[in-house]
Amino acid sequence: MMKFHFVTRKKRGIQILLKYFYHHQRASQLFQPLHILPKDATVKKDELISLSQKLLLDCGIVRPRGNGMYAFLPLGQRVLAKLTNIIDEEMKLIGAQKLLLPTLTSGHLWKKTGRWELTGDELIKVKDRHEKDYVISPTHEEAVVDMLAETYSLTHRNLPLRLYQISSKFRDEANPRFGLLRCKEFLMKDLYTFDKDEASAVSTYEQVSKAYDAVFQRLGVPYVKVAGDCGTIGGSFSHEYHYPAAIGQDILLICNGCGSAVNSELANNSDTTTCPLCGSVTTTTKGIEVGHTFLLGTKYSAPLNCSYQNEKGKPSLVQMGCYGIGVSRVLAAAVEALSCETGIRWPWVIAPYKVCIISPKRGSKEANAASWVNFLANTIGSIEGFHDDIIIDDRDTFTIGKRVMEAKKVGYPIIIVVGKSACELVPRFELIDITNSNVLLFSHVELLDFLRCK
Ligand SMILES: [Zn+2]
Predict the structure, then answer these.
(1) Which range is least confidently modeled, 20-24, 62-66, 191-195, 305-309?
(2) How far is the CA of 317 from the centre of ligand 1 (A)?
(3) Of 11-20, 107-116, 271-280, which gets the smallest average pLDDT?
(4) How far apart are the CA of 93 and the centre of ligand 1, in A?
């Protein structure tokens, strides 16, 4: 009799699930080239290095690949993926749809809007073999508006329409510095919105602003929202989101009276000590811009002739907004705002791994507790929100102390040590909560209970 071997879909699903649960990253296999300076090395005085740049390099999160260019190594890529996921979730809630536009945009579109000349040397222009002009896009207003104008017969029933992407953007920085904070290529989320009239464009602006607040609140880094400068993007009004940090390039004025905040570039004349709205005294803070929202009106839809068919069947220009979040910049600015010289502190929701489990040293008295390592990883991995968030530091030729120090520097929020106490009659494990430096000693059950409440 013939025998059939087949795996049912359900069984296959369980196999995949188990594989996923029980495959935890090992530090011994991780591509994480650490940047270690020789002991006698001295940093040149004129070499301005920001805290985030130093820590991200030292810990093998990113790697410089030329002036103002960075490779995101596996840990850095995990942080970007988590950021992307948070943004995607919040964009979905306001009905924004994700797409991906080409990196190159035809130069003639940028000429039509006047930005070919206006943007200056930061715009990277290239020619193809047929002498056709392109920009290596720093932003995509022209590209997305032209696509809508020429390929889609919009009617009032299609509006509002909200389209976004998360992609690499380019700028020819004259003076790249501070690592990811000022570089030539960066990861950016850009949303473009299309509405039938000004009132609904303003309502869209308010909805997107709420979604942005939700993103920044979920990240948990204190942020300041200020009235912003429209710059070369143009439009009628805008807001900026900043992480306060000493290295910040923007000076923010926060009113002690009415609480309004403004970018100093927008303050009338040079008076930066009194609030333009209520006259109270202002406090000055330096900030790193991580997000920007603009109400654009018809600034792009007019020159590129992007219109829709209104209720009366007549063509009418769409009203636009554009909204950016500097994804790679959020990563660096969060590190800049939260960390200290000794190590990175990540927002919980974007830490590269939430838990780092450190195995006993090979040949030590506690070495036979090593079998706990996988068991802990698997049981922690079965807790909601932890399955893909555990790294095992199995480099057991190193002392526990050395590996704890490294894990603290990389900033894994929870470090679990399988050490001496794991050999006791009731085995216990050291848990280091790096947000408050607490060291707790837990049994297996207590450990799981603690993590379930996280
Ligand atoms: Zn005020």
Answers:
(1) 20-24
(2) 37
(3) 11-20
(4) 33
Q: Where in the chain is the domain with CATH 3.40.50.800?
A: 353-452
pLDDT value of residue 39: 62
* Ligand 1 centroid from CA 262, angstroms: 10
**What's the pLDDT score for residue 274?**
82
Report the separation in Å between the CA atom of 286 and the middle of ligand 1, taken as the mean of its atom positions. Answer: 18
Q: What pLDDT shows up at residue 42?
A: 59
CATH of 353-452, one of 3.40.710.10, 3.30.360.10, 3.40.50.2000, 3.40.50.800: 3.40.50.800
Q: What is the DSSP string of 217-242?
A: HHHT---EEEE---TTT--SEEEEEE
CA 235 to centroid of ligand 1, rounded, Å: 24
Quickly list DSSP for 293-360. Answer: EEEEETTTTTTTT-EEE-TTS-EEEPEEEEEEEEHHHHHHHHHHHH-BTTB----GGG-S-SEEEEPP
- How much distance in Å is there from the Cα of 252 to the middle of ligand 1? 13
Chain centroid offset of residue 56 CA: 14
Would you state the structure tokens that stand for residue 1, as one six-digit string? 């009799």
Alpha carbon dihedral 294, 297, 300, 301, in 10-degree steps, equals: 140
Alpha carbon of 199 to ligand 1 centroid (Å): 27
Which pLDDT tens digit goes with each residue over 239-251? 999 999 988 888 8
**Is the pLDDT assigned to residue 200 strictly greater than 60?**
yes
- Domain 78-336 classified CATH 3.30.930.10? yes
Q: 224: CA distance to ligand 1 center in Å?
A: 15
Q: What is the mean pLDDT of the chain?
A: 91
For residue 128, give the DSSP letter. -
Pairing of β 428-433 and β 438-443: antiparallel
408: pLDDT strictly greater than 60:
yes
CA of residue 368 to ligand 1 center, whole Å: 65
* Helices H / strands E in the chain, number of each: 11, 22
Name the CA radius of gyration of the chain, rounded.
26
In tens, the pLDDT along 8-35 reads 667 777 766 666 667 899 999 999 998 7
Using the structure block, give the residue that is written with the tokens 């204190």: 222
What does the pLDDT read at residue 7? 60
Where are the domain boundaries for CATH 3.30.930.10 in the chain? 78-336
Interval between CA 264 and ligand 1 midpoint (Å): 14
Please tell me the distance between residue 313's alpha carbon and the centre of ligand 1 in angstroms. Answer: 46
Could you tell me whether strands 161-170 and 97-98 are parallel, antiparallel, or unpaired per DSSP bridges? parallel
Q: Is 46 exposed, middle or buried (0-12, 13-18, 19+ CB in 10 A)?
A: exposed
